[in-house]
Specification:
The complex is a heterodimer of chains A (about 250) and B (about 220). Chain A has about 250 residues and is an alpha/beta fold. Chain A is built from nine helices and ten strands. The longest helix of chain A is centred in the C-terminal third of the chain and has 16 residues. The chains are: A alpha/beta (about 250), B mainly alpha (about 220).
């Protein structure tokens, strides 16, 4: 933990707002994510955690405010949004691996297509990445042969193959069978310890406590409270945080 | 007046006519669905685009062609095109009738393609875009290869439906299966050809439907 470089802001949101119809999901969020930081986002369902995360790479187009990534304002209409997204890896609750491609092709497709990496190089790197997450024997399988945990580990290395500067995790273990959770969390932890900037929406409180530099509690479309894991889990101040934690912690 | 010759006698005496009609039916249906698919893919793109104006044009196109009888569309093509565009007078009227079939098919095919594309989980597009893939790469490398599994069987079913629809083209003397009725009616064979024609249509659709089921099974193996 804590290789964060507090001098270098990687992502900044300024008065970030998102409405779905009449529903205000994000009510103006100002936040800075620093390079190397591991930030977890906790909070009740429907509070805006996932929407906040999905705004960081413009999968959700903000209704108001802005997202600044590496100094550039992200705009869904700008042509280089794709270039920025290449630097922002994302892992989804439902894995979203590509079922019509082999494990290897899942990883090599985007680097060869969008970065122009030679096929042989992309495949060599993909195999190294698969080894890192214990999937080297699945290289030529199709995803349907993988367990949920294996699919999620594949999804993680697929994102890593683009050499992102930050990884966003949207409830990466919520769709997993209980015995699959640890394998995925181990990979994320290893990644975090290697210095990768990570923003993680999670319901795994033990994991959040252990891995985070900083914890954000998002509720009602705002960051209701934030602090170190120690502050947040041992001495929460906001009554909503206290109430939430009292319901999820044993 | 008696019943006249039996069905089998008529079939024996005139089978080349029925054969020719069957080939015509298969050809016209193929031409309609083939060009209808190319046009239909374009209409699907128009309907899937983010432009409200294009969406409206596409919706009107599909609604008009699906909401009016094919026979009426054929009549309009047959009688109106030569009047509206006199330069086309020398073009065979077969082409007008085929044009109506193609346009009609394109409306149905566009909905098949649109449905096939929409059936691919939105998470697939999100995953591709989050990797920084362009919209066109996302469509060609991720969405379409998955959509095609739903599209191909539906397209084959459209071909089967079109085999029956082309029977209307006989009205305009295109040589297809139903037109053989007209030819043989001139020889005072009224009822026998109808049963032969029906049997041939039934045989074609049953065989082709079995083929589609086989294709669906094969395509679903890789799921």
């Amino acid at each position: 933990m804590t290789k964060a470089n507090l001098n270098e802001v990687l992502i900044e949101t300024v008065d970030l707002k998102k409405n779905f119809g009449d529903l205000e999901v994000l009510k103006g969020i100002n936040e800075k994510i620093y390079r190397g930081e591991v930030v977890t986002i906790i909070g009740p369902s429907g509070g805006g955690k996932s929407t906040f995360l999905r705004c960081l790479n413009m999968l959700e187009e903000p209704t108001g405010g802005k997202v600044i990534f590496e100094g550039d304002v992200l705009d869904a209409k700008s042509t280089d949004l794709n270039l920025h997204r290449q630097k922002i890896g994302m892992v989804f609750q439902q894995f979203n691996v590509f079922p019509h491609l082999t494990v290897l092709e899942n990883i090599t497709l985007a680097p060869t297509l969008e970065l122009g990496v030679p096929k042989a190089d992309a495949e060599a790197e993909a195999k190294d990445l698969l080894k890192m997450v214990g999937l080297e024997e699945k290289v030529n399988e199709y995803p349907r042969k993988l367990s949920g945990g294996q699919k999620q580990r594949l999804a993680i290395v697929r994102a890593l193959a683009m050499h992102p500067d930050v990884m966003l995790f949207d409830e990466p273990t919520s769709a997993l069978d209980p015995e699959m959770v640890k394998g995925v969390l181990d990979v994320i932890q290893e990644l975090a310890e290697s210095g990768m900037t990570c923003v993680i929406v999670t319901h795994e409180m033990g994991f959040a406590k252990q891995i985070s530099d900083r914890v954000l509690f998002i509720d009602g479309g705002v960051i209701a409270e934030e602090g170190t894991p120690e502050e947040m889990f041992e001495h929460p101040q906001n009554p909503r945080t206290i109430e939430f934690l009292s319901k999820v912690l044993y | 007046m008696g019943l006249g010759p039996g069905i089998l006698d008529v079939l024996r005496d005139y089978y080349p006519i029925f054969l020719r009609g069957m080939v015509g039916t298969l050809e016209y249906a193929f031409i309609a669905v083939f060009f209808g698919s190319i046009l239909g893919a374009l209409i699907a793109l128009i309907n899937l685009s983010k432009s409200k104006i294009l969406n409206t044009i596409g919706t009107v196109y599909v609604n008009v062609l699906r909401g009016t009888p094919l026979l009426v569309q054929m009549y309009i093509a047959y009688f109106f095109i030569p009047i509206a565009i006199p330069a086309l007078n020398s073009v065979s009227k077969v082409v007008y009738v085929l044009l109506a079939l193609i346009l009609n098919s394109s409306a149905y095919v566009s909905e098949i393609i649109r449905g096939g594309i929409n059936s691919v989980d939105k998470g697939q597009t999100e995953a591709a875009r989050s990797l920084g893939m362009t919209a066109s790469h996302t469509m060609t490398k991720i969405v379409l290869p998955q959509a095609i599994k739903n599209i191909l069987p539906a397209l084959a079913n459209e071909y089967i439906a079109m085999i029956k629809e082309t029977s209307l083209a006989g009205t305009f003397m295109l040589y297809e299966l139903m037109y053989t009725r007209t030819l043989l009616a001139n020889k005072f064979l009224i009822w026998q050809p109808l049963f032969i024609i029906a049997a041939i249509y039934l045989m074609l659709t049953l065989v082709l439907s079995a083929g589609v089921r086989f294709m669906e099974k094969r395509l679903s193996v890789s799921d």
